[in-house]
Amino acid sequence: MIRAYAALGLLLFACASVGAQTRLVIVSGLGGAPKYTKEFANLANAMAKAAKERAGLPDSSIAWYGDPAAPKSGWFRGPALRDTLEHALAYLATRPAAEQLVLVLIGHGSGEGEETRISLPGPDLSAKDFSRILARFGARRVAFVNLTSASGDMMSVLAVPGRVVVTATKSAFERNESHFGEYFVAAFAKDGADTDKDNRVSLLEAFSYAELETARLYETDGRLATEHAQIADASGVARQFFLSPGALQRGSADARLNALYSERFALDEQIQALRKKKAAMAEDAYWAEAERLMVALSQKAREIRQLERGS
Predict the structure, then answer these.
(1) Can you give the pLDDT at residue 139?
(2) Which residues pair with residue 145 across a beta bridge?
(3) What is the dihedral of CA 127, 125, 207, 194, to 10 degrees?
(4) 244-249, long-range: CB within 8 Å, 24+ apart, which pairs?
(5) Residue pLDDT, tens place only, 251-269
(6) H/E element holding 145?
(7) Spacing of C-alpha 265 from chain mean position
(8) Directed axis angle between helix 82-92 and helix 127-134, to 10°?
(9) 136-180 pLDDT per residue, tens
């Protein structure tokens, strides 16, 4: 029955609308205990809901595979079985080059190096497996987001030019329950992560928001942080990588639009650099410069929106 259900889910995903530009695949692994089964399912559902309601993805472009015992929603396509996931991702690798893939892993992680894995209902998938699977996408834009505990070792295995890789920890030895994933999903589901005020959240903005909120959690609780998230973005695409379909127009032939995006990204880099210098600056000077840059960033985002809307 489980395998029949999984096959039906894969068929529904394969019949998704041809016009989709972003494919979101969410994998929530084996909970092992009712508490985690429910938490992983809630997080997966929140990610899917945010993708639809806030980023505008159609239901047909969102697929969630999870623990058979988990509470389910309309985005649930079946159990997160190794074979089902391999077939679903292999199918997406054959889709048009205009489509991008966002693969999000939620759950328990274990192992080291190439054998770092997510716990699934049945045989697990390891870093080595994901490297092989994602190689089929070639130069396509892919984001691999591993929100599991002990996920850090996947970074060195999965990071390649043009691919954005996020892990909730810096190594396989950070095995405690991770909170980074909660905030990463919240970046898309709630307000607060859109620092440049362009009404959409990039992967870089989501990462930065989650990293900050995770650190704040440990600081507030007076605990030593047991997780340190990482992002690999050698090609610098994370700040331009959005869930929303319209965000794929970064390669537009419109020279003015491309110039505006370049100027916006330059301002974003200046803001990031300023934040790093905060401790060495006089408070008044820091806030004056921060205000100048944020005003310029907001104005640039407004110009981009007006040009994209043709006004």
Answers:
(1) 87
(2) 104, 166
(3) 140
(4) 244/22, 244/55, 244/56, 244/57, 244/200, 245/20, 245/21, 245/22, 245/56, 245/57, 246/56, 246/308, 247/200, 247/202, 248/21, 248/22, 248/98, 248/100, 249/308
(5) 444 567 667 776 876 787 7
(6) strand 142-146
(7) 19
(8) 30
(9) 999 889 999 999 999 999 999 999 988 999 999 999 999 898 999
